[in-house]
Amino acid sequence: MLAFTQHNLGKIEDLFAALGYRVRYEKGSFRTGACVLQNTRVIVVNKFSNLEVRIQSLIQLLRDMEVDVSLLDEKKSEFYKLIKKEEATL
């Protein structure tokens, strides 16, 4: 299980950056913790969400999207595989 820490949130943000996405924290009228703006590579996270919801929301987006693993270095690729492996055990 991935711990809900600021460090892991940073690793997830770095993973999105390597994939070409920008993560922004803003207030919004969306019900989930995060969303991807249509036709852009911007992910908006509800800034009022707590750390656990932020991490869970970003992980859910990662699991739902097609990821080109060739864009990732070895460490980020291993971290991504860890996230995908946890999905399989749920």
Structure in words:
With about 90 residues, the protein is α+β, with helices and mostly antiparallel strands. It has one domain. Helices cover about 50% and strands about 15% of the residues. It has three helices and three strands. The chain has helices at about 5-20, 50-65, 75-90; strands at about 20-25, 35, 40-45. A three-stranded mixed beta sheet has the order 1-3-2, with helices on one face. A hairpin with a 5-residue loop joins strand 2 and strand 3 (about 40-45). It is globular and about 35 Å long. The termini are close together.
Number of helices: 3
Work out the strand percent. Answer: 5-15%
Number of strands: 3
Mean pLDDT: 89
Alpha carbon gyration radius: 13 Å
Poorly predicted ranges (pLDDT <50, ≥5 residues)?
A: none
Brief characterization of the structure:
The chain is 48% helix and 14% strand.
Key words describing this protein structure:
single chain; 90 residues; alpha+beta
Sequence-ordered SSE layout with sheet pairings:
Elements: H1 6-18, E1 22-26, E2 34-36, E3 42-46, H2 51-64, H3 74-89
Parallel strand pairs: 1-3
Antiparallel strand pairs: 2-3
